[in-house]
Amino acid sequence: MIENKFYNAVIIGGGASGLMCAISAMQKNCKLKIAIIEKNDRVGKKLLSTGNGRCNLTNSNISVNKYTGSFKGQAKQLFERFSSDYLLNIFSNLGLLTYSDNEGRYYPISKQASSVLDIMRFSCERLGVDFFCGEKIKTVKKTGNKFSVITDTNNFTALKLVIACGSKAAPKLGGNASGADYLKNFGHKFKAFSPALCPVTVNSDLLKSLKGLRVRGKADLYNDKNQKLKTEIGEIQFTDKSLSGICIFNLSLYTNKNYKIVLDLLPDYSHSELYDILKRRIQLFFSLPCENLFTGIFQKRISQAILKMSKIDNLSRLCTALTENEIQKICSTVKHMSFTVTKNEDFSYAQCADGGVPGNEINEKNMESKIIKNLYICGETVDLCGECGGYNLHFAFSSGYLAGENL
Predict the structure, then answer these.
(1) What is the pLDDT at residue 206?
(2) 125-162: per-residue pLDDT in tens?
(3) How is 128-186 classified by DSSP, letter by letter?
(4) From start to end of 204-253, where are the E strands?
């Protein structure tokens, strides 16, 4: 039998943004009746996986320059208030202790994402927020000045509604496009979700030979007009069909088919410096096969790939047999190892998604819809996506808190 339940506000989505929204609302007005509807059997499932299970909740370098999407301009005003210090103070008042690493990334001092979730869940329970987990939503609509959310087991009526149900990223943790469907039914436009912060698949016959290897380097992204769009430095990982690693994840926000990712495997050395190094090594390893040229610099499979990309087909040739032209080609390969992008990996590999409700349809002062009164939109459902390093959780928490204040 379906039960009728009335609330001042119903929040669809029990993730980072939805939980923070509920906490903020109840802290401001403890007399409110707030409900969180979550499709998973428990709240915060995706939150537990963030930061490799440690939950990188914010960054000391918060700036709109770390984000892409149509809400980017409006986010500047939001971040003027919600700095990393402001957000950390909110968490401190909830009972969470944090620390930062040398990249400015903040984590719970326990190094466990469960600490962040438990702190938020306990706060919701203490403040009187009602959880409804494992609820399958059938319809969401507005009739008159009230919202109706009908699930398999309950009929919720609310004066205000918050859409905080995330994106299609990480489908194994419940990611889907339900928020897009609800909002489009309310008359909102919606930029379709696409995978972001994920590995990038590229055209290469040599990738399979590099599978599982990692190297620290510089990665440049070029568009199809050969214009450099972005540079990242960090660990680069090779899979059998894609490039991965945090620096590649950040480039994935800007990639497109036929763009190029160019790797510099020794960014601390110029082309001429590398040439001098190789000349000395040829003298040192004169009696060895050229596949040993990078011994002590790169893993052997990477060395072999460099030589093959430099058109050195016979790896058993002695180092001293390499010509001046071949040495220059090898230097160029190390400094400009180029891969043509085919696409980003699918949502199952993505940490978040690009896309969402356009910024011009949201009031950045309170996260309220400009189309439907008393409808609020926060977190990943907004067209804003940040780089790796706590930027997406920072926006999820901040936008959720701001929406909650206005319920």
Answers:
(1) 87
(2) 999 999 999 999 999 999 999 999 999 999 999 999 99
(3) TPEEEES--EEEEEEETTEEEEEESSEEEEEEEEEE----SS-GGGT--SHHHHHHHHT
(4) 214-222, 228-238, 242-244
Q: Is 388 exposed, middle or buried (0-12, 13-18, 19+ CB in 10 A)?
A: buried
Of 230, 252, 265, 270, nearest to 343 (Cα)?
A: 252
User: Could you give the C-alpha distances from 58 to 50, 63, 231, 235, 322, in angstroms and in order?
Assistant: 11, 11, 22, 21, 50
* First and final C-alpha spacing in the chain: 29
Q: Which amino acid is at 181?
A: D
Distance of alpha carbon 237 from alpha carbon 243, whole angstroms: 6
Which run of H or E residues covers position 25?
helix 16-28
- With tokens 């409700």, the residue in question is 357
Q: What pLDDT, in 10s, does the model give residues 343-357?
A: 999 999 999 999 999
CA-based nearest residue to 183, from 236, 124, 140, 150: 140
The DSSP call for residue 4 is E
Q: CA angle 49-55-57, nearest 5°?
A: 135
pLDDT tens for residues 92-112?
999 999 999 999 999 999 999
Element (H, E) at 55: none
Query: CA-CA distance, 402 to 390, in Å (whole number)?
Result: 18
Contacts (Cβ under 8 Å, ≥6 apart) of 367 = 376, 377, 378, 382, 399, 402, 403, 406
**Cα atoms in the 13 Å half-sphere on the side-chain side of 176:** 13
Q: Is the pLDDT of residue 397 over 80?
A: yes
Q: Is 40 exposed, middle or buried (0-12, 13-18, 19+ CB in 10 A)?
A: middle
Tokens of 364: 């950045």
| 166 closest CA partner among 393, 373, 390, 405 | 393
